């Protein structure tokens, strides 16, 4: 197990822990989207959806009743419900518009409610939203419906409302159970609250519970973060997402409320990641890609073993849909033709969609080169390997160029070629984002800044 102050075994130096690289939940990454992709382009892409095409939906609720200082999501704090109610009316208009553009085409295989805090919605509005989605889109009978839950919002009426619209998966933000850490990030949430929500969703038939945990937070130590992991494991979650805190105060100003003097350094962060991952694996969980874990019989673990793991804006997934439609301000849609993102300004979004328009503000059309590199980066992020032969078969000359680049990668990249397959050495896997960045043609363009590699 890696300890603070040590160098990663082999030839990967510890200086790479703090390299600033994207998380690669998309390629090209969002900083390279541009205003050349607007509503009419997005409309045309949607209209090319086939009647039998599998589609995923993401619904973004951009409100919280408190602002967690660690958060980098697009959200705003409000104590009043009136802004939420006004937003919901606009969201229902967008849902109707997009449904009309699809005109019955596409089959919804997965629906994810994120934020912000979807659980800020009143129970009656949860039911309104669920009904509007079912009315506008063609849902498969076995569609998975996932909801991000804030335990501080939950009560019996909300449990029942989300169960009524078909919630099958629940994801709970935990971060850390240490009161000192919670105070430092403005996220107070007891273990008992968390356990109550886990029990509440399971009592209503939810078959999959995920816990989101963070390392690299202020005041965290190896011992404290290990204690949080052990507490979380007593809840027997089906999945665990273990993220490194992304300190990006230039992007999210409220993160300046976190005192940087108490943030662990790069080597301590790496030690926390290694320690906690080891504890989770010893509890019987399978490692999924860079930062997820699942019980061996969970569909995510099965997909990883069978080479069917994918990566999107929600992280690792077994969802193979080529089309993901984002609804709500700042939401990103991914289609075979490219990415399209809604305007992030809630007032602007509400005005556009209330008038029957699409709120697309920017995006990017995918070239053949983009598609080839996106495939290689996704396979590295998911499998820590990619087949050179398959890259050439799928992408021809573009694939050949990427294979050549892989063969020329320096020793620190950690790539080893064996029988036409390029794999990351075990000790280099925690730095897979840095290796993926070698194939990113956009990374050095513009002035985008990113979080640390570990």
Give your account of this protein's structure:
The structure is a single chain. The protein is of the alpha/beta class and 454 residues long. It contains 13 helices and 19 strands. Helix 2 runs parallel beside helix 3, helix 2 (82-102) packs across helix 10 (346-354) and helix 7 (222-233) packs parallel to helix 8 (266-282). The longest helix has 21 residues, at 82-102. It is globular, with a radius of gyration of 21 Å.
Please render the helix and strand layout as text:
Layout: H1 39-47, E1 54-61, E2 63-64, E3 76-77, H2 82-102, E4 107-115, H3 123-136, E5 139-149, H4 156-164, E6 169-175, H5 179-185, H6 191-203, E7 208-215, H7 222-233, E8 239-244, H8 266-282, E9 286-288, E10 292-294, H9 299-305, E11 310-312, E12 315-317, E13 323-327, E14 332-335, E15 338-342, H10 346-354, E16 360-365, H11 368-383, E17 385-387, H12 388-408, E18 415-418, E19 421-424, H13 432-437
Parallel strand pairs: 1-4, 1-13, 2-3, 4-5, 5-6, 6-7, 7-8
Antiparallel strand pairs: 8-10, 9-10, 11-12, 14-15, 15-16, 17-19, 18-19
Q: Percent of residues in helical segments? A: 25-40%
Write down the overall mean pLDDT: 92
- Determine the N-to-C terminus distance: 16 Å
Count of strand segments: 19
Rg is 21 Å
Given as residue ranges, the uncertain stretches (5+ residues, pLDDT < 50) are 1-12
């Amino acid at each position: 197990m890696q300890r603070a102050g040590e160098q990663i075994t082999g030839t990967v130096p510890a200086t790479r822990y703090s390299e600033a690289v994207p998380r690669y939940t998309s390629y090209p990454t969002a900083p390279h989207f541009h205003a050349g992709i607007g509503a009419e382009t997005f409309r045309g892409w949607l209209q090319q959806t086939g009647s039998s095409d599998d589609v995923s939906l993401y619904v973004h609720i951009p409100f919280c009743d408190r602002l967690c200082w660690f958060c980098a999501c697009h959200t705003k704090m409000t104590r009043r419900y009136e802004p939420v109610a006004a937003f919901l009316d606009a969201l229902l208009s967008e849902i109707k518009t997009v449904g009309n553009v699809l005109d019955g085409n596409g089959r919804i295989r997965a629906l994810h409610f994120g934020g912000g805090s979807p659980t800020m919605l009143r129970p009656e509005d949860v039911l309104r939203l669920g009904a509007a989605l079912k009315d506008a889109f063609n849902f498969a009978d076995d569609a998975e419906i996932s909801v991000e839950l804030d335990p501080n919002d939950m009560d019996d009426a909300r449990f029942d409302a989300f169960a009524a619209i078909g919630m099958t998966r629940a994801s709970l933000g935990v971060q850390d159970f240490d009161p000192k850490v919670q105070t430092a990030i403005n996220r107070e949430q007891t273990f008992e609250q968390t356990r109550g929500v886990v029990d509440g969703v399971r009592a209503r038939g939810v078959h999959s519970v995920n816990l989101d945990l963070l390392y690299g937070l202020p005041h965290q130590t190896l011992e404290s973060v290990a204690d949080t992991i052990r507490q979380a494991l007593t809840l027997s979650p089906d999945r665990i997402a273990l993220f490194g805190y992304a300190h990006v105060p230039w992007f999210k100003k409220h993160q300046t409320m976190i005192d940087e003097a108490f943030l662990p350094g790069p080597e301590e962060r790496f030690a926390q990641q290694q320690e906690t991952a080891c504890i989770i694996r010893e509890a019987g969980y399978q490692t999924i890609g860079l930062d997820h874990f699942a019980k061996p019989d969970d569909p995510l673990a099965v997909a990883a073993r069978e080479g069917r793991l994918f990566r999107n804006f929600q992280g690792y997934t077994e969802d193979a849909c080529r089309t993901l439609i984002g609804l709500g301000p700042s939401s990103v849609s991914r289609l075979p033709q490219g990415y399209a993102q809604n305007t992030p300004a809630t007032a602007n979004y509400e005005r556009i969609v209330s008038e029957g328009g699409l709120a697309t503000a920017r995006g990017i059309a995918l070239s053949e080169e983009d598609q080839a590199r996106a495939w290689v980066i996704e396979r590295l992020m998911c499998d820590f390997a990619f087949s050179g032969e398959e890259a050439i078969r799928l992408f021809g000359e573009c694939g050949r160029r990427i294979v050549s680049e892989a063969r020329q990668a320096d020793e620190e990249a950690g790539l080893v070629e064996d029988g036409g397959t390029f794999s990351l050495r075990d000790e280099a896997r925690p730095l897979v984002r840095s290796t993926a960045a070698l194939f990113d043609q956009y990374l050095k363009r513009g002035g985008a800044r990113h979080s640390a590699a570990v």
